[in-house]
């Protein structure tokens, strides 16, 4: 089925099909929503929620101490409740991403227009991979969440599944989806806003996501982590051209959410955090020019994390990041290489050495942002960057560079910090290290409407507190 992408302001993104929409249909008043429209919309919603810096829905750049705030400091002092941030994030992933993907699956199964059944299988498998990614985000944010019954809309108050059971289940789903995909058949074509329906790319993404899920288990279930990572390594990303990127457009309404929140809204709410800038400065990091703006004299200066800061006195997000068409990044090659470096240190059989994979991860990050290979290699020669001499144990070496590579991906930076306990975060004045969130608290609506299941989940995760460590966060 040939699918032609169009933009509709009512739902942000949609698609129309020459096969499914006839000249006698009224496109402004559809009776049925095509499956690929829902798939496109789910991708857009996922990219938006993971990319936006809105303090109402995504404060991960603040929690991972990439950015600091200027006038309003509640979020960098870990106030999740005033704006009800967990609820907005929860609702967006469940309703606007997982819900659309589930409905897309249902419609794919009902669609009688497929001339090639493998195309149907490809689309179902790709949709499922997107769901796996979305559930991963929820589990890594909250812990126990509704999973097995979450998308059954006949159940008003779904039970929460144990987080330790969800992650292996997600890995198993990836295996099923990988087995179902066939690159010789079509899939979503241009309704797929990440890979244009290319099944080979989706198989690489699924394997890379399997690495991501596997490494999450490393301290909780080393054998399961080893199995997942060793089986996925050969099929994962091997260069930056494989990255899972969402291409925003240069004109509204489908622009980069960072541009929307900072430039279009004319807001000066954020500056670079001293936590992040200080680590980059001590390493003379070449990515500073791509990440941030310089201040007087061409230096890079971070504002005090957790305190108010003068916008004009400190570095802030670069013009690259605030460009309206700058892409959203869900998973990339640098991340794959850092996972493989860690896998080697843990004794997993993925080939190469920890140092070689670490070096490839650094080079991939520097070149993705605009630096040259020569610049990256010179950076790696510095004693505090080179794998053999960088400070700390392997967790610190890999953890710091992975955290730096996750710039503009605050959620992933937060996960990496929790897993590897590196770098050491700054503690806002008047708080303690125990106040830094290691999970989101559950939404207030769950407490009020799904009370019985909420109470069980809260007890299961060790109390519905930001300081309750998730099952994989052992140290």
TrEMBL record:
<keyword id="KW-0449">Lipoprotein</keyword>
<dbReference type="InterPro" id="IPR011990">
    <property type="entry name" value="TPR-like_helical_dom_sf"/>
</dbReference>
<dbReference type="InterPro" id="IPR041662">
    <property type="entry name" value="SusD-like_2"/>
</dbReference>
<dbReference type="Pfam" id="PF12771">
    <property type="entry name" value="SusD-like_2"/>
</dbReference>
<protein>
    <submittedName>
        <fullName>SusD/RagB family nutrient-binding outer membrane lipoprotein</fullName>
    </submittedName>
</protein>
């Amino acid at each position: 089925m040939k699918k032609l992408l169009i933009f509709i302001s009512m739902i942000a993104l949609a698609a129309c099909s020459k096969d499914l929409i006839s000249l006698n249909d009224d496109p402004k008043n559809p009776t049925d929503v095509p499956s690929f429209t829902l798939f496109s919309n789910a991708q857009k919603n996922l990219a938006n929620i993971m990319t936006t810096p809105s303090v109402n829905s995504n404060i991960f750049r603040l929690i991972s101490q990439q950015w600091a705030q200027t006038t309003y400091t509640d979020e960098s002092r870990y106030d999740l409740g005033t704006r009800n941030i967990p609820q907005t994030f929860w609702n967006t992933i469940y309703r606007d991403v997982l819900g659309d993907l589930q409905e897309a699956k249902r419609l794919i199964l009902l669609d009688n227009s497929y001339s090639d059944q493998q195309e149907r299988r490809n689309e179902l498998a790709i949709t499922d991979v997107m769901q796996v990614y979305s559930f991963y985000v929820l589990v890594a944010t909250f812990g126990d969440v509704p999973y097995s019954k979450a998308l059954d809309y006949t159940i008003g108050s779904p039970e929460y599944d144990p987080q330790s059971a969800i992650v292996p289940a997600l890995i198993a789903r990836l295996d099923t989806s990988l087995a179902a995909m066939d690159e010789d058949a079509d899939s979503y074509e241009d309704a797929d806003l990440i890979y244009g329906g290319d099944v080979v790319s989706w198989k690489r993404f699924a394997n890379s996501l399997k690495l991501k899920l596997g490494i999450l288990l490393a301290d909780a279930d080393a054998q399961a982590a080893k199995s997942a990572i060793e089986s996925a390594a050969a099929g994962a990303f091997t260069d930056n051209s494989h990255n899972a990127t969402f291409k925003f457009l240069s004109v509204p309404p489908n622009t980069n959410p960072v541009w929307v929140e900072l430039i279009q809204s004319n807001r000066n709410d954020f500056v670079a955090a001293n936590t992040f800038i200080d680590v980059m400065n001590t390493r003379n990091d070449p990515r500073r020019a791509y990440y941030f703006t310089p201040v007087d004299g061409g230096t890079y200066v971070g504002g005090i994390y957790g305190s108010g800061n003068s916008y004009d006195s400190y570095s802030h997000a670069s013009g690259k990041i605030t460009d309206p068409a700058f892409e959203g990044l869900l998973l990339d090659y640098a991340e794959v290489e850092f996972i493989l470096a860690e896998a080697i240190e843990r004794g997993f059989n993925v080939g190469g050495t920890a140092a070689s994979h670490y070096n490839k991860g650094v080079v991939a990050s520097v070149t993705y942002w605009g630096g040259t290979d020569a610049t990256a290699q010179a950076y790696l020669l510095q004693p505090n960057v080179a794998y053999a001499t960088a400070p700390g144990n392997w967790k610190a070496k890999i953890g710091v560079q992975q955290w730096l590579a996750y710039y503009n991906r605050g959620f992933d930076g937060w996960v990496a910090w929790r897993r590897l306990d590196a770098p050491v975060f700054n503690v806002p004045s008047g708080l303690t290290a125990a106040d830094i969130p290691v999970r989101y608290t559950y939404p207030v609506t769950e407490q009020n409407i799904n009370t019985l299941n909420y109470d069980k989940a809260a007890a299961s995760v060790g109390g519905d507190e930001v300081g309750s460590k998730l099952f994989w966060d052992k140290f």
